[in-house]
Amino acid sequence: QVQLVESGGGLVQPGGSLNLSCAASRSIFSFNAMGWYRQAPGNQRELVADVTSGGVTKYADSIKGRFTISRDNAKNTVYLQMNSLKPEDTAVYYCNALTLWPRRYDHWGQGTQVTVSS
């Protein structure tokens, strides 16, 4: 098991920036990937970005060029730098730690609210 604690959410104006952090209670290197998902009211939870243990990143088309995911294995922390925020980025953002063996298992944080509004 692992505890994931997100921070850094809040209210920001359109065009602004936020940097989300996800601190894990144990080494993140053991996970196949660390990621950020989001869920807006009435919508399904969707992948925003993830990064594998080998450093390969993947981004949703809607946020490419605006968001950057990074990981600090020494600090057991994953970050999501969000720039040029839009109202449609408003959602609860969840940190995810993915295990694939012996079967897929997703660990989740409690989520942090991001609201983009003027």
Radius of gyration: 14 Å
What is the rounded distance between the termini?
39 Å
Coarse structural class: mainly beta
Q: H/E element string? A: EEEEEEEEEEE
Low-confidence sequence ranges:
none
Number of strands: 11
- Mean pLDDT equals 96
Describe the 3D structure:
- The protein has about 120 residues and is mainly beta.
- It is about 0% helix and about 50% strand.
- The strands form two sheets. Strands 2, 4, 5, 6, 9, 10 and 11 form a seven-stranded mixed beta sheet that branches. A four-stranded antiparallel beta sheet has the order 1-3-8-7, with no helix packed on it.
- The model has no long low-confidence stretch (mean pLDDT about 95).
Question: What's the structural blueprint in terms of helices and strands?
Answer:
Layout: E1 4-7, E2 10-12, E3 18-24, E4 33-39, E5 46-52, E6 57-59, E7 67-72, E8 77-82, E9 91-99, E10 105-108, E11 112-116
Parallel strand pairs: 2-11
Antiparallel strand pairs: 1-3, 3-8, 4-5, 4-9, 5-6, 7-8, 9-10, 9-11
Can you describe this structure in just a few lines?
This protein is mostly beta strands and 118 residues long. The chain is built from no helices and eleven strands. The model has no long low-confidence stretch (mean pLDDT 96).
Features:
118 residues; globular; mainly beta; 11 strands; 4-stranded antiparallel sheet; 7-stranded mixed sheet
